[in-house]
Amino acid sequence: LGNKTQRNLQFCYHQKKKRANTMALALRFLTCLVLTVCIVASADAAISCGTVATSLAPCANYLSKGGEVPVPCCGGVKSLISMAQTTPDRQQACRCLQSTAKGMSGLDPSLASGLPGKCGVSIPYPISMSTNCDNVK
Predict the structure, then answer these.
(1) Is 1.10.260.40 the CATH classification of the domain at 46-135?
(2) CA distances from 73 to 9, 58, 118 (A)
(3) What are 70-102's pLDDT values in tens digits?
(4) Contact call for residues 63 and 111 (beta carbons, < 8 A)
(5) SS3 for 123?
């Protein structure tokens, strides 16, 4: 290869390497940004979606088929209510409920909305996919 061609190839190689390094740096920055947002968003809310899902797992069969509400289901509902004492906790619980409901096939929305009453408790917002969780206090 000629000297000029060799220099052009080296130039192209270094440009690609710079772009790859820039992309890697941008990806690291974006990852840090996303993690920071997630940490800040969850810092106010002590309740996690895992906790919500675990608390309400005994309710899954009832929420799709109806019948008697299992005692462990009501225990989970009451436990969840006692954990969600602050506005950020209640908003997070609301979001988690909606997220979990989207993933459940066969969920009967009327059974879900009536569950707190069946367990003898009340919550300050309706259980519904249309509830704006940002408005939950």
Answers:
(1) no
(2) 68, 5, 10
(3) 999 999 999 999 999 899 999 999 999 999 888
(4) yes
(5) coil
